Amino acid sequence: MITRDQSEGASRREFLKMLGGGLLVVLVTRDALAAPALGARLTEAAPGAPQIPEDVNAWLHIDHNGAVTVFTGKVEFGQGIRTSLAQEVAEELRVPLSSIRLVMGDTMLTPFDMGTFGSRSTPQMGTQLRKVAATARERLVALAGARWHVDHGGLTAADGRVTDPRTGHSLRYGELTAGRAITATVSDDVALTPKPHWTVAGTSAPRVGARDLVTGRHQYTSDMRVPNMQYAKMLRAPSLGATLASLDASAAQTMPGVVVTRDGDFVGVTAPSAAAAAKALGALRATWTPAPGAAPSSRDIYDYLRHTPAQEAGPGHEGGSTEPFERGDVTAALAAAPHRLTQSYTVAYIAHVPLEPRAALAQFTHEAGGDRLTVWTGTQRPFAVRDQVAQAVAMPNDRVRVIVPDTGSGYGGKHTGEAAVEAARLAQRIGRPVKLVWTREEEFRWAYFRPAGVIDVDAGVDANGLITAWTFDNYNSGPAAIRPWYAIANQRVTFHPSVSPLRQGSYRALAATANHFARESHVSELARMVEMDPVAFRLKNIDDPRLRDVLQKAADRFGWPGSNRQAGHGVGVACGFEKGGYVATCAEVSVDRGSGEVRIVRAVTAFDCGAIVNPDGLRNQISGALVQGIGGALFESIEFDHGVIRNAHLAEYRVPRFSDVPAIDVVLVDRPDEPSMGAGEAPIMALAPAVAAAIFEATGVRLRALPMAPTGIKFAAASGAGSR
Amino acid sequence: MRIDLDVNGSRHSVDIDPSQTLLDVLRDELGLTGTKYGCGEGRCGACMVLVGSHAVASCTVPAQSAAGAKITTIEGLEHDGHLHPVQQAFLDEQAFQCAYCTPGMIMAGVALLRANPQPTAGEIAQGLETNVCRCGTYPRIVAAVRRAAAAGGGESRP
Ligand code: FES
Ligand code: FES
After folding, report:
1. What is the ipTM of this complex?
2. Taking CB atoms and a 6 Å cutoff, what residues make up the pocket around ligand 2?
3. Is the omega angle on the peptide bond into residue A50 within 30 degrees of 0, that is, cis?
4. pLDDT tens digits for A288-323?
């Protein structure tokens, strides 16, 4: 649970002084406006000394030169929001994109934010920033009206200036605010520019700061250094849950510049160079006591999850209701259905493998009023990590500042602050700045995974091809997108959290991928049972017009179902809805009869996430999600036994590479009248079930376990098990 | 031990530990952090640099064995404020998301075009197979290398 720190405002006020004059616009939620304390605070604001309410979602500042700075707690991990959010601000503020700078993910400078996940940046932060920018514009126009003693209704704002077309008067934004500090507060109902009038938003603006990305100049956390900085390495247990029995650090301690820090099982070394730190780590002699009791392995994990219930949902179980859902009389409907199908599906633990592993740089500074700690780290939840770090070093939250440099990706895998806490504890102990960069192997072993899970589906279809009954039991994989969006009169949907032997957590689209895999695979089988085309069968059972539309568009672009299939080729389709995004994917695969190797030959995905803010950025996200989805669909899986990850290297854990990538065709469905929703997640969902269906068409083999073909398809073994 | 490294046209005399890889020395001793660590075992290409005309995974090269060789890193591609054609092509195609893989991809692309100035899409994919883009921007990377090839074979040899 994240708690707001009351003293947070103190550092904010220092920061506001730093901003100096100009126009500051803050967005306050309705709840906050309703709070009497806040009303008092706002009216107290003395002229020339802007104050800021505590419960602010976003703010924006325009200085006397017209430079616009936007402050948001969101972070840039490659999803492109540093650009798309700036586009939205530029649009409402009527300024060129280049005049906007975003300060992101800095707990001292930016408003509190829960974190960058759940595809919320565009629908929530984007909308908030548009309101902030629109308010700023209105305020500037009003200032100009007052200055010229005219009714501001006739004034126009464009290109960073307010102009009176009647008199020809024109002033730049900076001139209008010059020398004065002005604060304005946004309420929720400021009018926003409708999409048909967009000129900056809605275009394929190139990524802000892109030049530094191709020159290597951009500094990720792992690239940073500060004077006097020491390099750290952590001692890791040989297996999960093992405890340190003994430690002999004598050899390491004699090495020049090396400090060994031990606090219980927390053991780290610091040294003047990374090489020396690695040497010192290697010189530690530790013995460990394995965790007691038998631990399940990847071979028996599904039985284990099915039979080891947890008291309540935990990490990795976000994004959906954990309450059972029931409608109609599912038992009777199943019994009455002329066609019935019961199957189980499984999904493996998989790793995020962000190309930049966890990294942190922690620096204490001594200031009047006590120590301050600054930690640079790549996390999707800077404020939560700040609290985590503050607790670890026993400092008040407002003495700790977390800054998130644009980071080498996360995909839901960097919600936590392990490296930040480790670096901070070591820096506190040695009194010097410390940088810690996890190795790839540490990232595999000590980060968290997408939950493994088992899903049982039982469904009935009537004689006309209408799905009449549906039960869906998800063990541990998670409740995101667990309820069907098919119009089914009788359903029972239940999520069962399990005790997980591996550390699990968020992943791109959470459990929506697993739930779509089970649901859509099942629906494809049902279609076959009643001998209907899988697109037609879906259309018959889907009411939602936007979902129908993406399905139809994907099928059309793909040329569904096509004819004259090459030998060994097959096609499949799947669709879905999550987090405001509608997706449909058609895939064609080829399967080599000899080796069993599966290749995805082409994939067409149609996607609708409302009004499109940046079409090129959106295409990039959709295509990237599809590529990432290939890994989880076909070959990614964490192997483990006795608490040890067996494939903690890229040599053993296969991720999608160039040769795995099909011809990808993305159909963007723009909905100018619908709110803009996020796109980082939903496009990944439909690939795996579409590929499963395609493999079935190509081979007659039904694959119901993700990953489907880590070592290719074994025809002999599968032919008996596959239901045709 | 002290070795001489020739990096981006400058000689550096550096005191190294025999355990250090070329990647370690570039990043930690020379401060050339454009070259990234991604796996440390030659399986991701984030650390690729040119040794002579060949792209190599610098995490697999003992620093001492690179002494005397002509090494080019991502920082050495730009000349007088002009991007190398492959860098420019990555910009033009917006061939990145988090861009952590980008320096390694660009170096691999530069080496590929030196050996094969007009590669097919298949040859590009094959040539860059060591390089991982976890964000999945592969199709754009292929397009960028093709674009660089079309813009003159990518050859603006430093
Ligand atoms: S870091 Fe060298 S190949 Fe991955
Ligand atoms: S752009 Fe993120 S790894 Fe390639």
Report:
1. 0.97
2. A 78, 355, 409; B 96-101, 133-135, 137
3. no
4. 999 998 889 999 999 999 999 999 999 999 999 999
